[in-house]
Write a structure and sequence with these properties.
Blueprint lengths: L6 H17 L2 H10 L6 H9 L20 H14 L6 H14 L5 H8 L5 E4 L4 H4 L6 E6 L2 E12 L6 E8 L2 E8 L5 E6 L8 E11 L12 H36 L1 E2 L2 E2 L4 H29 L5 H27 L10 H13 L4 H11 L7
Parallel strand pairs: 1-4, 2-4
Antiparallel strand pairs: 2-3, 3-7, 4-5, 6-7, 8-9
Helix pairs in contact: 1-4, 4-8, 4-9, 5-6, 5-8, 8-9, 8-10, 8-11, 9-10, 10-11, 10-12
């Protein structure tokens, strides 16, 4: 949790938490994993949209609006609560696309944005490659101008909700430059191949574009001038991802500490042993630093700080390294029960480990930091 939240932000966070606890506790998450092919329920997602889950990064003139005026910081509160309960739903990709449509969308995309805000449809972003630069496949998608429109060819993935999305924001190479296109999921020539996911309720797909023909009005922004837009989408996605990881590790640390206080060994609670106190102290320090770095990144993106790219990569490299480590420590502190299917620890570990690898690994982001400050790549 970030210190200094306004009353409205606190109310928004508490409302989101209560909604998730009432509608999607961990036993429901397990049930969804077994019974929902899409990994989430559409009617449930619409209720989340009614709470403002898709409006924070959308301008007021397009029907959106944030709680505090810092849209990404407000949406990060939702991401943190989603991580706290490893909840389902395409929160990150749908918001990335909604924000892009609001920033650059013309009249051709108004209906798409309206449907996203109302929870009637969901969206996903197909970023460019290589992985360290945006999370897409190295092959990527190429666009070729043809008449008044374009033709898309290539593959990208794994894309979150790629097989469930109603619309796709495709970042493609147009010559040597980047262009973005809004593509309906059912267009001829587009196929989605389900991809493996270690997260029980997150669905991914590799998308193949075989001569997909789209009109000129499918372009988002000016073709060949999308670099700044893609960078902002990348930063939005990474910040939300970091807050989701922080929410997960915060919750795991809390119930592990509670377990250590209740669990007795040789007549003493586990938490009373000096060696374990040291381990808890280390984890607490890493957790608070994760909160701080994620919060700094969100504020930098919201304010368009010149240090935005660096702080986003600092957050992802730090949280991505320490999140799985904290949860693995908590698994060890639980003993044998911590490695069973019935315990909830593995649900959190799956989410955090998968988030660690998407949109750049910690190593990728350290290399981005090194390149940004003009030194050799860091390992």
């Amino acid at each position: 949790m970030e210190f200094g939240l306004t009353d409205d932000q606190q109310l928004f966070q508490e409302t989101t938490r209560k909604f998730l606890e009432d509608t999607c506790p961990l036993d429901v998450v397990r049930k969804i994993a077994e019974e929902q092919p899409d990994g989430f329920d559409r009617s449930w997602w619409r209720r989340g949209a009614e709470l403002g889950w898709v409006s924070m990064l959308v301008a007021e003139e397009h029907g959106g609006g944030s709680v505090s005026g810092r849209g990404l910081g407000d949406l990060a509160l939702v991401a943190e609560e989603v991580g706290r309960l490893v909840a389902p739903g395409p929160l990150i990709p749908t918001n990335v696309v909604a924000a892009a449509l609001s920033r650059d969308g013309g009249a051709a995309h108004v209906d798409h944005l309206t449907d996203l805000l109302g929870g009637e449809s969901i969206a996903s972003w197909c970023p460019p490659g290589p992985v360290g630069d945006g999370g897409g496949s190295p092959a990527g998608v190429r666009a070729t101008a043809r008449g008044a429109g374009f033709v898309l060819d290539g593959t990208t993935g794994p894309v979150e909700a790629g097989g469930q999305a109603d619309i796709l924001l495709v970042t493609a190479r147009l010559g040597e430059e980047l262009a973005q296109f809004v593509v309906p999921s059912g267009v001829p020539g587009l196929t989605a191949q389900p991809a493996e996911s270690i997260d029980l309720v997150r669905r991914f797909a590799s998308l193949r574009f075989d001569g997909v023909e789209i009109g000129g009005d499918a372009s988002l922004g000016q073709p060949g001038r999308a670099d700044r837009d893609v960078a902002r989408q990348f930063h939005d996605a990474v910040v939300l991802q970091c807050f989701e990881m922080v929410g997960a590790i915060d919750r795991v640390f809390a119930f592990t500490l509670e377990y250590a206080e209740d669990r007795y060994s040789f007549g003493r609670p586990l938490v009373s042993y000096q060696a374990l106190k040291h381990r808890f102290a280390d984890m607490k320090m890493w957790l608070e630093a994760s909160h701080a770095t994620a919060g700094a990144a969100a504020r930098a993106v919201d304010s368009a700080s010149p240090l935005m790219a660096e702080l986003v990569s600092v957050a992802k490299s730090y949280v991505g390294d320490h999140g799985p480590l904290i949860i693995q420590e908590c698994v060890q502190l639980h003993g044998g029960i911590g490695v069973t299917w019935d315990h909830d620890l593995h649900l959190y570990l799956r989410r955090v480990v998968q988030d660690r690898a998407r949109f750049g690994t910690p190593r990728d982001h350290r290399e981005r930091i090194a390149a940004g400050i003009g030194i050799g790549a860091s390992r």
